[in-house]
Amino acid sequence: MRSLADVTPSIALGALDGRYRSAVAPLVDHLSEAALNRQRVHVEVEWLIHLTDQGVVPGVRALSEDEKRALRQVVEDFGADEIAELGEIERETVHDVKAVEYFLKRRLEKIAVSDAAGLAELIHFGCTSEDVNNTSYALMVQGAVQQVWLPRATALNEQVADLARELREVPLLAHTHGQPATPTTMGKELAVLAFRLQRQLRRIDAQEYLGKMNGATGTYGAHTAALPDVDWQAVSEGFVEGALGLTWNPLTTQIESHDWQAELYADVARFNRILHNLCTDVWSYISMGYFAQVRGQGTVGSSTMPHKVNPIRFENAEANLEVSNALLDVLASTLVTSRLQRDLTDSSMQRNIGTAFGHSLLALDNASRGLAGLDAVPSAMAADLDANWEVLGEPIQSAMRALGAQGVPGMDQPYERLKELTRGRRITGDDLREFVRGLGLPAEVEERFVAMTPQSYVGLAPRLVDHLDRD
């Protein structure tokens, strides 16, 4: 049998780079191995520019604007040829960050109009590999979240919110513990989920992305040994916050502590779990007939049963959310721990960040397509409400309690009397109205409950949807 590993072009091992590539492709610019190397080049270029602009090393000239533009263009033009060249250098160095240093020194020889050799010594000056890696990962994750994941997640949340607004008035028989319960509206139930997602998005949008630039054990040891008169903390802070746009972490070991990553991944995982809840609820509503799935989209629901339109978008979303959360959870728990000043568990772990976000992004795509294919069926919701008049036992006994507390006679044991009427059996509207008329309620209260139906007993549900539009 022919080995598929030898087929050209190469066959992807994982689904994200195979079957689902189109849905997750935007993350390649941020969370791939090539993106990591491009950010490393970016950090090294900006560190060289920062050191020369600040005159940190006496006697070393500043770069001209043309030289800076040319160096930054190396980052902009980073592509297949540069990836291949870096790979070739790394095969010699057997060190990925050192390969980036040598790669840039080659470029500087062609860019610098003078003193190329001296300037080249400031590439990676005072740095440990983790100085470059931690800032690169921070920039990568920041870009992936702010430019790709967050816009998609926000659009999905707005899709849910729009559906909630559209269905705000549509009565729905609620189910608690799987049993018929106090009616609500479909819009209010979707608004609950949209509101939960919205809160997590605000947390994720406010996330800090930390970086450090302080040497092999976070002491600026090499820096101060070489140039003791320089305020290296100020240089580091200015670079991390000014040049890179990250939040400076002043106190670390060899590694930036990754706590911000754990915070972010926990929030994204929580968003995923709420979205998973939405998928299972919508799946249930579809199974109850409360939503119909739009037909005529060219999809095959079942290979053998022509009548079926399966809720596959929501099921696929559930699976991808679970894979994403498994990775996000292990990232969050593992990255916060490092043996003493440094170990490499984080290095291998962080290479899975793209996969974690990829499965979440794929789930967003699945859920969005699923929601776009839904049509509400108010008649099905109304039929279930009309078959469950017993849910009006709650408001009637509550009114009797209030009247009893006010001293109205004949209102004793309201819960027990309604329990006897409704527990374990179905009643009709006529049954309930006859019961109400025999309770001895004040006339205006009796009139209200005689007119009440399961469809009208939704409390403030429609108005509660308005909370989605409040800051």
UniProtKB/TrEMBL annotation:
InterPro entries per the UniProt record, alphabetical: Fumarase/histidase_N, Fumarate_lyase_CS, Fumarate_lyase_fam, Fumarate_lyase_N, L-Aspartase-like, Pur_lyase, PurB_bact, PurB_C
Domain Adenylosuccinate lyase PurB C-terminal intervals: 338-458
Q: Which reaction does it catalyse?
A: N(6)-(1,2-dicarboxyethyl)-AMP = fumarate + AMP; (2S)-2-[5-amino-1-(5-phospho-beta-D-ribosyl)imidazole-4-carboxamido]succinate = 5-amino-1-(5-phospho-beta-D-ribosyl)imidazole-4-carboxamide + fumarate
- Pfam families under this entry? ASL_C, Lyase_1
Q: Which residues are in the Fumarate lyase N-terminal domain?
A: 18-317
Q: Which family does it belong to?
A: Belongs to the lyase 1 family. Adenylosuccinate lyase subfamily.
Q: In which pathway does it act?
A: Purine metabolism; AMP biosynthesis via de novo pathway; AMP from IMP: step 2/2; Purine metabolism; IMP biosynthesis via de novo pathway; 5-amino-1-(5-phospho-D-ribosyl)imidazole-4-carboxamide from 5-amino-1-(5-phospho-D-ribosyl)imidazole-4-carboxylate: step 2/2
Molecular function terms from GO: lyase activity
Q: Write out the function statement from the record.
A: Catalyzes two reactions in de novo purine nucleotide biosynthesis. Catalyzes the breakdown of 5-aminoimidazole- (N-succinylocarboxamide) ribotide (SAICAR or 2-[5-amino-1-(5-phospho-beta-D-ribosyl)imidazole-4-carboxamido]succinate) to 5-aminoimidazole-4-carboxamide ribotide (AICAR or 5-amino-1-(5-phospho-beta-D-ribosyl)imidazole-4-carboxamide) and fumarate, and of adenylosuccinate (ADS or N(6)-(1,2-dicarboxyethyl)-AMP) to adenosine monophosphate (AMP) and fumarate.
Could you tell me the keywords of this UniProt record? Lyase, Purine biosynthesis
The record ties this protein, via NCBIfam families, to: PRK09285.1 (NF006764), purB (TIGR00928)
Q: What is the lineage of its organism?
A: Bacteria, Bacillati, Actinomycetota, Actinomycetes, Micrococcales
> Which Gene3D superfamilies does the UniProt entry name for this protein?
Fumarase/aspartase (C-terminal domain), Fumarase/aspartase (Central domain), Fumarase/aspartase (N-terminal domain)
Q: Which organism is it from?
A: Luteipulveratus flavus
Is the keyword Lyase assigned to this protein?
A: yes
Q: What class of enzyme is it?
A: lyase
Protein name, per record: Adenylosuccinate lyase
Q: What Enzyme Commission number does this protein have? A: 4.3.2.2
